[in-house]
């Protein structure tokens, strides 16, 4: 559990369908509830196993709060990153639990000029271990070249 910082405004645009809401509002800027619903839809679209999932969003502080129980630490971390790497979010308040606790991964913020081989060499001393990072970030990454500056990645031990 904890608070995770991300860089607001450079993440991917959230195009996931929003969870249904009672009375949709259509202001020029999406409401906090609309953003929370889209974040929830984004997590569900990834197919990560989590029970009791809820997401709230505070537009004044760009803070997304996530609650629920993930099956594994890796799933929990992927959910945090899925929410944090969206353009509206600057911080993620992780209030999730894990069914089977295990050691946490390191997080790494991608810099301009980075690729998975370069990051792999930095963390593992071997650029050929890039697939370990790629697999640790699936389904968030569709291919090994799908990273951008400011994005936060999981780096497993």
Automatic annotation (TrEMBL):
Gene Ontology CC: one annotated term: cytoplasm
Keyword Cytoplasm: yes
Domain of life: Bacteria
Record keywords: Cytoplasm
InterPro entries attached to this UniProt entry: Bact_Kbp, BON_dom, LysM, LysM_dom_sf
UniProt-listed Pfam families: BON, LysM
Cell location: Cytoplasm
Family annotation (PROSITE patterns): LYSM
Domain LysM: 106-155
The name this protein goes by in its record: Potassium binding protein Kbp
Source organism of this protein record: Acinetobacter defluvii
Name of encoding gene: lysM
């Amino acid at each position: 559990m904890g608070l995770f910082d991300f860089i607001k405004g450079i993440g991917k645009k959230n195009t996931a369908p929003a969870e249904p809401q009672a009375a949709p509002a259509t202001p020029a800027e999406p409401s906090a509830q609309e953003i929370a619903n889209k974040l929830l839809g984004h997590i569900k679209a990834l197919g990560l196993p989590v029970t009791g999932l809820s997401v709230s969003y505070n537009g004044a502080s760009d803070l997304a709060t996530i609650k629920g129980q993930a099956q594994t630490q890796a799933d929990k971390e992927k959910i945090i990153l899925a929410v944090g790497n969206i353009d509206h979010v600057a911080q993620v308040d992780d209030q999730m639990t894990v069914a089977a606790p295990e050691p946490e991964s390191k997080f790494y913020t991608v810099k301009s000029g980075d690729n998975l081989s370069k990051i792999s060499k930095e963390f593992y001393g071997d650029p050929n271990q890039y697939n370990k990072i790629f697999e640790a970030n699936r389904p968030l990454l569709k291919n090994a070249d799908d990273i951008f500056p400011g994005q936060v990645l999981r780096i497993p031990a």
